[in-house]
Amino acid sequence: MKSFYLSVACALGFAGVALGAFGAHALASVVTPPRLATWATAIDYHMFHTLVILALLGLFKDEPNVWLTRALRTFVAGIVIFSGSLYALVLTDIAILGAITPLGGLLFLAGWFCSLMAARERAVNE
After folding, report:
1. Coil, helix or strand for 37?
2. Sign of CA dihedral 55, 70, 97, 22
3. 62 pLDDT band (50/70/90 cuts)?
């Protein structure tokens, strides 16, 4: 299961770099500065949480932990929904897509809560 999330994190990292380059080179002359800032926000959250996934996998590499699994799932879903909705908003200029973004933010918060619970479970078992 952890090797699956390692693969997912690597794919997310690849996608984040590719989308960042796309934003910097292809979108910079096509979209408004506020939309470009929205793209940058999507990239920041995308890459930051990809790194969090990798860090959690390293920190809990040999430990089964249900809270870790929940954290990994919610961080991946958060990236897809939060950053994905912002990418779609910038590319389509359909404002209602911004209404989906807070759900991704809630998933990020849930991921951090699950990470906290994983750390607490680890502390109890030490």
Report:
1. helix
2. positive
3. confident
Q: What is the structure's pLDDT at 73? A: 97
Rounded Cα distance, 42 and 76, in Å? 14
- Residue 35 has which token pair? 């939309």
Is 90 exceeded by the pLDDT of residue 2?
Answer: no
Q: What is the pTM of this model?
A: 0.94
Classify the C-alpha dihedral 20-86-80-70 as positive or negative: positive
For residue 43, the 8-state DSSP code is H
Residue 29: which region, alpha, beta or left (left: phi > 0; alpha: psi -120 to 50)?
alpha
* Backbone phi and psi for residue 23, each to the nearest 5 degrees, phi listed first: -65, -45
pLDDT value at residue 125: 82
